[in-house]
Structure formats: C-alpha cells, structure tokens
Amino acid sequence: MKNDNNIPYKIYLSEDEMPRQWYNVRADMKNKPAPLLNPGTGAPLKAEELTPIFCEELVKQELDDNTAYFDIPEEILRYYKTYRPSPLVRAYLLEEALGTPAKIYYKFEGNNTSGSHKLNSALAQAYYAKQQGLKGVTTETGAGQWGTALSMACSFFGLDCKVYMVKVSYEQKPFRREVMRTYGASVTPSPSMETEVGRRILAEFPGTTGSLGCAISEAVEAATTHEGYRYVLGSVLNQVLLHQSVIGLEAKAALDKYGVKPDIIIGCAGGGSNLGGLISPFMGEKLRGEADYRIIAVEPASCPSFTRGKFAYDFCDTGKVCPLAKMYTLGSGFIPAPNHAGGLRYHGMSSILSQLYHDGYMEATSVVQTDVFEAAEQFARVEGILPAPESSHAIRAAIDEALKCKETGEEKTILFGLTGTGYFDMFAYEKFHNGEMSDYVPTDEELAASFATLPNIEG
Amino acid sequence: MKNDNNIPYKIYLSEDEMPRQWYNVRADMKNKPAPLLNPGTGAPLKAEELTPIFCEELVKQELDDNTAYFDIPEEILRYYKTYRPSPLVRAYLLEEALGTPAKIYYKFEGNNTSGSHKLNSALAQAYYAKQQGLKGVTTETGAGQWGTALSMACSFFGLDCKVYMVKVSYEQKPFRREVMRTYGASVTPSPSMETEVGRRILAEFPGTTGSLGCAISEAVEAATTHEGYRYVLGSVLNQVLLHQSVIGLEAKAALDKYGVKPDIIIGCAGGGSNLGGLISPFMGEKLRGEADYRIIAVEPASCPSFTRGKFAYDFCDTGKVCPLAKMYTLGSGFIPAPNHAGGLRYHGMSSILSQLYHDGYMEATSVVQTDVFEAAEQFARVEGILPAPESSHAIRAAIDEALKCKETGEEKTILFGLTGTGYFDMFAYEKFHNGEMSDYVPTDEELAASFATLPNIEG
C-alpha cells in the first residue's frame, strides 16, 4: 500500500492556516486582460457604467488590474469555515489502480451543499450585496451548482435570490430546483416569458433548450428593472477568479507544507472559475519567473472555446445586453447540442485565462463525453467520490497524463481540481450506463455559423 | 460572532488520531442483549447455524458479548481514510440563530458518496467477505444509503453486489439506483418476482410499496440459494453497532481534545446503527459508572418502535426466514404508511439498544414528519449542510433541547449525530415545500393488528 513520506490521504489545513486574502493574478500579468467594452459605444466601460448592474465593491474588484491581494472580510471567512479548508487528497488508490509512478493530488471542492467550488464566489458576492444594502440578487445557472451556491449564500446573508436556470438543466435536474427552494430562492426555467429578452429569444427559437448566455440576459434584465437588485455571475468575470483564488492558495499551502511541487496542473474549463482559481498562485510564480508549471485547461469537445474558438471581442450573453469582453469564444449564438451533459456550456472563456492562453502560459485540450464518463466511473470506483461531469474532464486528462508517466516511467506530480460531486447528475450517468450517450462534436460549418454572430470590433 | 476557547468550526482529527479499534459496548453491559433464536426450534443460535447466512468473522463479532475491543484491519482503515476522520462541527451559526446559551456539536457523517455513516460498516462487511473468498454479497436497502455504501465497499474490494431496494424508495429515488450502478451493483425493487418470498408477499399484498423486513427476506434467500454469496445487513445487528462505534470514538476523541464533555447526546433511531455507534464510548463510561450522560433516541412518530413498540422476541424480517431477536418492535408485519419519507422505517430496533433502553440507560422520543422537515430547512439555511430526513430527526430534538436551554438559561452541551445528506431526498423536500406532507401516525388499532404478528416466545 503506497504512502509516501507520511503524506496523508487527505491534507486538511487548520482554520488558522486558511488564506486571509484573495490573490489577483492580473497584478502579475504583463499583458493585462483587455477591458470590458460598452456594447453601444464600443468604448472601455467605466465603473459608473457597471454599478447599475453589479455591486459597487465588486465593480472595483472587477476593474482593478494592479492590486495583488484583497483582504477576505471576516464575515466571509466565517462562512468559508462551514466548508473550508477543503481537503487536498493524495490519490493513492487511483495511482495504484493505474499502476503509474505519477503522484496524483486533487483539490476537492465538493464537500458543501452546492456540490462545487461555486460557493467561494457566491459568498463573496452575496456579502458585498448585503453590505450595499440591496434587497436581492439575480443570476443564471446551468448545471445548477452556481444557483445552489448563490441560494445558500443569500440564505446566510438574508438576501432575496432569483435564479434563471437553463431550461435543459431545469428539466434534467428537477431536484436542484428543490435544493434552491430549500434555501429560499425562486427558480425560473430560461428562456422564460418573464423578461423582454426571454420572450424575444423564445419567439426566434421556439424549441430552444436554453443556454447560459440566454439565462444571463434574463437575469441582467431582471436585476436592472427591479429596485434594490443587482446581477451576480458565477464564472468568467475577473472578480470571480479573484474569489476562487482561495482554491489555489489553499492547495499551494497544503503542498508547500509537505514540500511537494506539482509538475502539471489540470483543471476543467467552462467559463474558467475553477481553473482560474486553482492555478492562480502557481501562475503568479510562473508570470514572475519564480517557477515553471505545465498548466492544462480541459474543455468538452462539444463546447470547445479554447481549442476551436476565436480570440476576439464578443457579447457575454445571447441577448447582447451585457458588456463586450475579449475572450476565446464560439460566438454568443453558440448553444451546445442537447447531447451535452452537465455544465461547461458557456460560449466564451474568462478574459484573464484567454489572455494567458493567448500568451502561451497554458495549454488547452478537449475531450469527448463518453471518455469523460468512463474516467468518472473509474475514479468513483477507486477513490469513492462520485465526481461531477464537469470535474471529470480534469480527471480524464489527469488519468491520461498519469498513463503517459506509466509508459515513460516518469514520477511526475500531477495536481488537478476536483470541482464537485455528481449527485445531481445521475440522469447523465444513467444515459452513460444505458449506452445512450453520444460524443457529438460541432462541425466546422456549425462553428462558422456561430462565429458569424461575433461583433466586428478590434481589440 | 461566537467562537469559544478557540474551538474551530470543524474539528478534524489527524489520520494518526483515528481509532485503531472498534469498541464493543456489550462487554460493559451487565444485562447482555438476549441471544438470537432459531426460528424453527426457538433455541439460541450457534455460530454454525449463522455461517450459511453471514461471513464467519462477522458471526464471531455478532456473538461475542465480552471482548471490549476489536482491531480494525489495515485494509479497512485504508478505505476509512478516503472519508474519515469525519468532522465534528461546532454549530456556532445554529446557536446564534436560535439565540441559545447551549453549545451544540454535531458529528457529520455525510461527506462520502453513500451520503451517510453506513459506509463504516459496509467496508468492514465487504472486507470480511473478501477475506473469506466469497464471490459476492446480497443486501436490502431502504432510503438507499446502505445499498450505496455497500456498492462502494464491494467496488473497492472487487465483490459482486446484489441489492434489494424497498419499492417505494426505488420509485422515489431513481437516481440512487444509478449511483449504485456506477459502483457496479445490481438493484432490484422489492418485493420482486426473483425470490420465493417475494412472490409469496406479492401474492398476499399485491399493492405493497415494500418494507425493509420484506427486502431482508429476499436478500437472505438470494444469499443462501447462490453459491459463494452471503447476506450483509446495514443496521440492527450487534456487528453493525460494533463497526459504527468508530463514529462515537472519533467524536469523543475530538471533544476530549478540547476538554468538552457533552450533557446530552442525541441520535436518530431506525434500526439503531448510527445511534448505537455514536453513543457507544459514552455509554461505556455510563455503564462503568465513570460518567453520566443524558442519551436520547429520536424516532419517527410514523414508525415508533421504542416509544410505542413491545420489548419481545420477534422476526427480523417479514418473510420470517431470519433468526428471532429480542427487541423493541412493532411486529414484523408493520409497514409504515406511504406518507413516511426517508429511512427509519424498520419495524424493530437493535437488541443492544433495546436492552439499554429497557434498563433505563437512555430515553426515547418520537417526532412527526413536518416538524422534522421544518428543522431540516432551518438547519440547512444557517449551517449550510442539507440534511437527510433521517438525520433531521436528531436535529429536531437538538433544536428543541437548545430552545429549552434558552428558556432556562442553562449552558448545556449538546452532541448530536448528523448521519448524512439529503441530496437524494429532494422528492420528500418537494412534498414539504408544496405542503403535501402529512403527519400520519399509526392508530392503536393498527399497532394492535401488527403486534398480533409477534411470535409467542418468552425471553
């Protein structure tokens, strides 16, 4: 039975060892992410243009490319302690099952009711909304993890919470809705008839199963047309990556404690919240020239923004009411085929990660769905944890890298992000078990049609 | 913000501090639990009569009333480390929400894929089955936690796993089935046409939604009619309480570390696996006269074996193929009304706990369903964790005791067992949210009819 240097199966930091500050990787980037643009004028957005949509403090965090560290308020730390520090797990059992000399670690963010890392930013965003004296917040959710996380955070801070849930997820995950209701949130399948933009999208695409971009449009409209509400978002934005840096900071502190330095860092990538958070302190060292790491983003082949997208200014939402962001994108009209299970269904990618990828600081790869679920099941059967489909993209890549080590005999150290659990994804697992899951990948023609929705803006 | 004596929100023991032995509370009982009887002869069962049903090592544990400690094999400890030590949580947030001077702690067993404490015994039972060279095991499951736990354990040790799932749970929890399939188990709704006893029960009660007692009969028949299989059970048995002692031993070690002594210990009670495990080391002290604790069993008013049952020899299963046990029981023909959600639906109660209750070492109380779900939701909204309906019985009682402290001003220390999460119970939560949940309690006439199924045996 493997057990290296007395490294336990699970490394838990103590509450005293928890990070007290978030790290802003933008401070160490030479090429800053391109600014958000006003969709009307095409000019960089100023704070006062953003505050009708977002909370004031969050706008400051969003626009600050230079401050390296932000203090985590005590009230947020307090709720972090209900589920953090999260464990860094040494995957002895997986290593043995694979027969690999690689050493595999994963940072497990699923031990909270939202089932994922999303709560890290939800708590921060709800806290600042409360501080500003708001009544409530609106948001969108895809797989439902973000919506659940926000419901929990709003319940803690006594805020109203209105969630627009991508229709296909709403139907495939009826129990997610009940979890959100348990925490007091209201949940609407998107597109809905409740908003102008929803009605417009339904008129144009009557059979649509929805998309994150469309749900975002509805949530933004709801926030800006109701007094005392603001919009909050669970991924893509700079502020979200800032809050999610707690994942990487904890992971690094735990590894440092045992003198372990990863060679490869792997994370799944949809909008980039988990990947950006996990890699941030490592990327900081890499940007400052203090260390080198191989960093790999893993995305679904059915929604391949890094690997097949364009690096361009695009709308963040289908309804085109949000600011424009420069990012790797498939076009705001892109909607993954209905076979696509789980999250990682956003058409774009965090501007920070897009810039870092563009500048060569990280790699990206895409994987097809049945390969992902095979890895998920293999992982579950040896490590016990039932992974979310999203997280399983990272598992797939980690297993593949570990198997390469088996061939070459290299004892590489692999760190990957296990963002959450799959308890609410059993519909997808069922399809996999019944052999009904397909590996559909968009054709070049489909992507070309989607790219045609890109605005013509130089950036 | 409350934070006593630097006691963290979550107390995690290190892997080095994990218990290396299970504790057998029978060793300290003056009045031992009554022996199992042969249903044919009415004589106490010998080991050789049990080994066709159970694994040999487990039979030894079952029948040993005198050995106080059993070593936990290294292979079991290893898998314990994938989810243990489990956190002992100080419920600062709940205390604050209640405005109580009470100090509330809970031992949280839900951070594993089975969603409950059941894995503690599943790993042990699967290990001994593997050691004996068996092909596989059969079992029943109600709410599905035990079946999931056993599926995981069998997957770890490479055993075949056949689960008979109470039909009402099978229908209300389709996703549980997929979790079990993910770990490679086969799942059959019970009663089924696969077994003699299932066919007999279906013929007699065509519309039955099933019961644990009936699923047990089917699983036992399947084990004894297939070469290389044995039956395993997730509750009630002495061996299960032995394995579950790890909960109490860890909880006590964590409390001792901070010099905390509970005044009241609360656990939900169905067959007694969690309650028996949680209280064991505390009960040991009480039995030896070294300390005193108030110990409370909380059961559903819809299945009230302690509070309205008889202390008598009874069949452990509806099909009457199993040994007879002396216990608090509602009669083996008892089936909870269909309104009853979740587990805690067994007609009887662990012989160990029954004897302790009979001898005055613990109290019992029953609670109605909507009160339980109210407590569950209140707890979720402040502590974050979404509790299982079963666990929420203990939450209800803990909140009630804390509110009594608020009235009297007493600073009592309350420890309760939070056995698991409710992710697969959203159907029940939905009924609660929609006001469709009832508090049906069996009438005296219904219980009298059920008591009529008791065998006429002095014990």
Polypeptide structure, described:
Two copies of one chain form a homodimer. Chain A has 459 residues and is α/β, with parallel strands linked by helices. In chain A, 41% of the residues lie in helices and 16% in strands. The first copy, chain A, has a domain at 4-20 and 72-115 and 239-451: Rossmann fold, CATH 3.40.50.1100. Chain A has 18 helices and 15 strands. In chain A, strand 12 (310-315) and strand 13 form a beta hairpin. In chain A, helix 15 (369-383) crosses helix 16 (389-408). Chain A is globular, with a radius of gyration of 20 Å. The A-B interface holds A 1, 8-10, 12, 14-15, 74, 78-79, 81-83, 93, 111-113, 115, 152, 155-156, 174-175, 178-179, 181-184, 377, 380-386, 421, 423-424, 426-427, 429-430, 433 and B 1, 8-10, 12, 14-15, 74, 78-79, 81-83, 93, 111-113, 115, 152, 155-156, 174-175, 178-179, 181-184, 377, 380-386, 421, 423-424, 426-427, 429-430, 433.
